[in-house]
């Protein structure tokens, strides 16, 4: 899987590690991502890719920084 990095709306840079299926609900796809300090995080894909309101404007919670080669 090519490395894809995202910028969180608060400024942090994260690397997408993989997508995973939530065991307790196979209809939920989870995004596994890694912070610069190595911490691993997960969020439902619907939350990871959603638009949120910041200062009255809709922005992506995580915006892609680069495209895979």
Describe the structure.
The chain contains 1 helix and 7 strands. The protein has about 70 residues and is mainly beta. The protein has a single domain (about 5-65), classed as SH3 type barrels. The strands form 2 sheets. A 5-stranded antiparallel β-sheet has the order 4-3-2-1-7. A two-stranded antiparallel ribbon has the order 5-6. Strand 2 (about 15-20) and strand 3 (about 30-35) form a beta hairpin. It is globular, with a radius of gyration of 13 Å. It comes from Paraburkholderia antibiotica. This is DUF1653 domain-containing protein. InterPro entries: DUF1653-like_dom (IPR023387), DUF1653-like_dom_sf (IPR037135).
Task: Describe the strand arrangement of the main beta sheet, using strand numbers.
Answer: 4-3-2-1-7
Going by CATH, what is the homologous superfamily? Answer: DUF1653-like domain
How many domain modules?
1
Q: Uncertain runs with pLDDT below 50, 5 residues or more? A: none
Overall structural class, as computed from helix and strand content, comes to mainly beta
Note the gap between the termini: 10 Å
Number of strands: 7
Give the SSE string. Answer: EEEEHEEE
How many individual helices? 1
| CATH fold name | SH3 type barrels
Q: Please identify the top-level CATH class.
A: Mainly Beta
How much helicity do the residues have? under 10%
The residue-averaged pLDDT reads 93
Give the overall form: globular
* Largest sheet properties: 5 strands, antiparallel
Relative strand content: over 45%
Q: State Rg.
A: 13 Å
